[in-house]
């Protein structure tokens, strides 16, 4: 597949006209709709109502777009690492937790990223992340990646290539419809 050419897509805050494209891309990446976890790994489908709820909670959708076509998107949110949030995590790198507590207002949580299957492995995810890092250059970022019951190796490798470090592990007996669930928390500081 051809790589994205510099300057082809633009990075911008999603607007109301992007909602249908975000829903389509998101739902194409729900792992239950895929024959392989390598093509998509979002845990639950999304609706316009869920997107509206997310936006009402100060979550923001950013898109990579070419003309009117959405190539991919990311959903980000401010996140303060309170004791309630961090207590159930096993910190493999507690120095990161301490560093993030120094400036909690500069923390952006990347809730999800999804690329249209037609544009996967063409640099769209890299473009979205690099654009986020540029747009919010004074911030640090975190993201969870599923590790069990099915390992999302593609996302783990992607985050490591984007400069993220494994910081913590979350384990749950039950999470959504998964038993023995485990997710890894990555940080880029």
Automatic annotation (TrEMBL):
GO molecular function: acyltransferase activity
InterPro entries linked to this entry: Acyl_CoA_acyltransferase, GNAT_dom
Keyword Iron recorded: no
Pfam families noted in UniProt: Acetyltransf_1
Sorted UniProt keywords: Acyltransferase, Transferase
SUPFAM superfamilies: Acyl-CoA N-acyltransferases (Nat)
Catalytic activity, EC: 2.3.1.-
Coiled-coil stretches noted in the UniProt entry, renumbered to this chain: none
Location of the N-acetyltransferase domain: 9-189
Keyword Acyltransferase (UniProt): yes
Protein's recorded name: GNAT family N-acetyltransferase
Naturally occurring in which organism (per UniProt): Spirulina subsalsa FACHB-351
